[in-house]
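S1.2 Input.
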Amino acid sequence: MNDFIIGTTLLFTDPIGIAVFIGGLVGGLVFGAIPGLSLLTLAAILLPFSAWLKPEHAIMLYGVIYVSGVYGGAITAILFNIPGSVENAPTAFDGYPMTRKGQAGKAIGFAVTCSAVGGTISAVLMMMATAPIANFAISTFGPIEVFAVIFFGLTVVAGIGTGSLSKGWLSLLFGLFLGTIGLDPVGGTPRFTFGSLYLSGGISFVPLILGFFAVTEVFIQGHRTASGTHSPSKISVAYPSLLEFWGMKFAVVRSAIIGWFCGLLPGVGATLAAFISYNEAVRWSKEPEKFGKGEPEGVVAAETANNAATGAAMIPLLALGLPGGALTAIMIGVFNMHDMEIGPLIMVEAHDLVWVLFASIFWASLAILALGVVEAKGIVHLLRIPFPILAPCILIFATIGTYALRASIVDVYVMFGAGVLGFLMRKTNYSIPAVVMGLILGQIGENVFSQAMVLVDYSVIGLFDTWVSGFFLLGGCMTICLLFYRRLKAFTNR
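S1.3 Output.
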């Protein structure tokens, strides 16, 4: 407790520190909500300037950006079906349908509160058990275990966003196929590139996500306008009641646990946490068919988990020098710029600095709650903008964000191609969430699967060697069997 007080004192007794804290909070919220820019863009812009800051201010800045940016991406995901970053994609699955039903205030309220709860829980656990938990996670979770977790998550994806099992599985397999485009992670052999230099690097997440969500939605609403069936989103600033929050208690606890453990795994982080948590929400629900149609628990699951992963990601970073993602990898560079080496001795050599980081993450999580409550009451009025004005703004915004990512016009073509494909999928009741999950989890899963097969000497049986991998692999297989059994039973009953 004394260390936390010291860190808080160092954070808020210095005017420059307060300014950096507020700047990181606002900057993370803004850049997190701008598709195509994301946290990495802001982190890269600020990296040269961080060398001129005090070490504690530089490290604190990136911690605050990480926390606030993950929440910022939820705003546009809920209001306009435009995830600010990849980890906010599951938020859009139910957040935007809630907006269409006139529940934007509730969706943002759940996102704000659960982001704060998930982040705060994660920060507290981070302060309590950085070294021992990091050592346990690193010693227990290797490529084999991570692949097993991803396989387990993929087994419930097919049932999301569509009532047809066959269409769900076809959507998932298509997403997995998209993830194979590019170079083989083992041998570097080109796959489905057709001689294109662009495709050799694989398909970027951002153009596809913006295409499937933002562009598709513009096409859908444009088609409805042309056919005379368009209806604007209902505007409501109603905040969730205490009773509604209490009804989500089990989902919050489950999602916080999932997010925490996903955050502990190097290279996994908030993205996998959000998808796995959403999948488990569907899995545990008594009415899974409601997900993808405006189910508040979907927003709760995604936003609790991706924010819970932020504090947990600091544990392997600080204790063992292993980054959980791109932004935490940049943080290693910030430490190095200030002549500090991350590792087991960091808690001794830079004790006060580490606790400034811990305190900043904790207070940033609480600040999101205060800021978000005010924000939720006003930001929903953006929905009053007429569609003929809003649609071109969304397309221009998405195009700029996509092009700015890699300065590639091909990314823009991919985005609009994904928009057309998403429009056709929506019209034929195929699952866009399953495609997105298949793409993202498939790419991560293929990399760790390649590493896992090397470790077990290419023996499939070897994947079951540890209790963790065996548990998740068997659980995934049982899920597939149960899913098909339920659908077969329903078919025979008809």
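S1.4 Remarks. The first helix runs from residue 2 to 12.
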